[in-house]
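cron nightly-structures :: item 1 of 1
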Amino acid sequence: MSIPPSRAHSALRATFVVYAGLGFATSAWLSRLPDVRDHLGLTPGTIGMMLLIASLGSLLTLPTSGPIVMKIGARWAGRIGVFIWAIGIAGAASGTLMESLPVFTASLVLMSAGTGLWGSSMNIEAGLVQAAVRRLVVPVIQAMYAVGMLGGALVGALAARAGLPVAAHLFGLAALELMVCGIAVGFYLSQDEVATLESAKESSLGEGEEASGNDEASGNNVKKGLTRLAWRERRTVLIALMVMSGGLMEGAANDWLNLSMVDGYGFATSSASAIFAFFLLMMTLMRFASPRLERRFGAPHLLRFTMGCAIIGLLLVAFAPHHILAILGVALWGIGASLVFPLGISALSVDPVMTPARVSVLSTVNYGSALIGPPVLGLIADHVGYHRALAFVVFPVLLAIVLAGQVPDQRGRVRAVAPLGD
């Protein structure tokens, strides 16, 4: 039994929309962070502490996102995540109107909780869609997140230049996301639909200890305990550690790139938003090109090259003597941050039964590092400045380069999503 192509492609298009929606939501509000900083009179350390407190929301939803999706499905998990996020962004708008840092920070906790569930459910859905269409589509799906972020950054830059009040910007954003993404998640594939594929049994036949766990889970067709099983898989955990650097690179750009360009290199807020959009453009182009690049060079070599670019880019942004070199660093940073998470998901999206559990592990680590790591950089920035603090991101990227070999090279496979073997 197979999923009708029209059904699979409807789910693929819905996933495109939801990824773009979260990307747009994230960058559209973060592009106004310099204005929020000025409006509330925040210091780098205060912003870092505020974002660190906000990350508590993600700590509640990320570890439980896999079991939640397994129990109620990605559709309802996605709807709930979007709704919680919208309440949070509306509260943040109210906090700016009240000029209340406690209200604003509490609202960010809700936002991060919603983002954790929203993002984890859509990543699980991306893995299921790839298993259904039997093609390497996760990097292209992830590219839509960057497309959305690019659009959000441009809208944020235009709103800042036009003098649109931050509160009006955030209220409008909440309404838009509730409408668009709340509808799109209704077209998601369920895990049960994907598990009916004839290839599911073949996909679960791997080698070694990990494969035996897959065979047991697939044979019994049980969902309970699969997330715990995924956390015990050596390859899944090592790829998750590699993915941690991707989350930190993206999160650091989301939170600090605008402020680094404003305070570190003297750009205006609107110009800094345009530079952030340039960062997202580089990520987008790399993600759209990644299926062809992966077929030519192989995932491990491609990951090592792009993460090497990230190291050079981060050091240029941190220490460049001229703003032109800093912009070049932004481009290299964007290239380096583009493929870590997408190729990690692709490597583990080969078994419809285990895909939600494995991708939930990656999502927990990726979003956890994206939400918790950057606020720590804010505390460092209090002493060395926003742009200098970014040099500390180099250390997890070096670890990720070492772990890139855990992602299989599938150039010789007939299908881009052929079963993994150890």
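cron nightly-structures :: done
The longest helix spans residues 56-98.
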